[in-house]
Amino acid sequence: MATAGSLIHARGLVKRFGSFEAVRGVDVDIAPGESFGFLGPNGAGKSSTMRMVSCLSPRSGGELRVLGMDPDTDGPRIRARLGVVPQQDNLDVELTVRENLQVYGRYFGLSRAAVRERAGELMEFAQLTDRADAKVEPLSGGMKRRLTIARALVNDPEVLLLDEPTTGLDPQARHVLWDRLFRLKQQGVTLIVTTHYMDEAEQLCDRLVVMDGGRIAAEGSPSELIRRYSTREVLELRFPFGRVADHTEVAARLAERVEVLPDRLLLYTDNGDAALAAAHEAGLRPVSGLVRRSTLEDVFLRLTGRSLVD
User: Which residues form the ABC transporter domain (predicted)?
Assistant: First the structure.
């Protein structure tokens, strides 16, 4: 049985491709109005999970309920109430911005008058009104991404699924997109996001799961996960490539935990400045020393022993 109030409910969810198990027993509940994230590197099972939730790929095992219905038997009814933003934009580049929205709206049975009105609202939302009659092909990556999201909203969905929404965008375009998504959340739309960007997960997600190898390694809000699996600060000591291991033993005496990367040591501590001073007193002479706050990248490193971006 689904947890009371859950829009998405999964227990022991499995997806196999031949002998390969891409999703290996995922349990998750997503509440109405929540912004929920699947965080992990490429190949973690995020997109396979999203495709099952969006009724684009049948599950191989386990229980799944979307909007209280079974995707195996109620796929069309579920899809009519979802908005899906795929990892790669699949716009019709020969059509204009307005035409992309209007043609897509007709697939949902909206009248011509209704779809014209909805297209106007969505172009304003996506900051594309001044490009309404421009062809899609020459638009920037950020504009195309905003149009893809606008198109997914044509049917006024209850749940919007976004697979790696800002991959390939420059920092300014990413922040514009985050602002649009935050506005949707304020309007009560439930957001489900996959990402391998820890800053994106921290910006967008009320709650998330960290995925690795098709399994969930941890679940919680970004701040809860950082508090549970990391320290308040991290001291990064960079050394010449190939010389990092020479300093590991000394560094291990200065922090609660030390992670060894090819070009630097990460010292996990609640006082990075004090750890940096202690490192210098202990005779360490790094090329550079940086004190920063812990992030979800550090959580992932703690849980899996490797970086989010391999």
Answer: 8-238
Q: What are phi and psi of 23, to 5 degrees?
A: -125, 125
Q: Do 72 and 168 share a domain, yes or no? A: yes
Residue 128 lies in a domain: yes
Q: What is the pLDDT of residues 271-305, one digit of tens each?
A: 999 999 999 999 999 999 999 999 999 999 999 88
Pairing of strands 207-212, 215-220: antiparallel
- pLDDT of 211 reads 94
Using DSSP's 3-state secondary structure scheme, residue 11 falls into strand
The number of CA neighbours under 13 Å toward the Cβ of 299 is 31
Sheet holding 61-66, edge to edge: 20-30, 8-17, 61-66
Same structural domain, 248 and 204: no
CA distance 266 to 109: 55
CATH number of the domain that 76 lies in? 3.40.50.300
Confidence category of residue 198, pLDDT binned at 50, 70, 90: confident
* SS3 state at 64: strand
Q: Residue 196 has what pLDDT?
A: 87
pLDDT band, residue 3 (cuts 50/70/90): low
Edge-first strand order for the sheet with 82-85 is 82-85, 159-163, 190-195, 35-39, 207-212, 215-220
Beta bridge partners of 193: 37, 162
- Residues 195 and 57 reside in one and the same domain: yes
Q: What is the dihedral of CA 124, 128, 132, 136, to 10 degrees?
A: -140
Handedness of CA 225, 229, 231, 236 (dihedral sign): negative
Residues 6+ apart with CB under 8 A from 274: none
Task: Give pLDDT tens digits for 13-57.
Answer: 999 999 999 999 999 999 999 999 999 888 899 999 999 999 999
C-alpha span between 251 and 306 (Å, rounded): 19
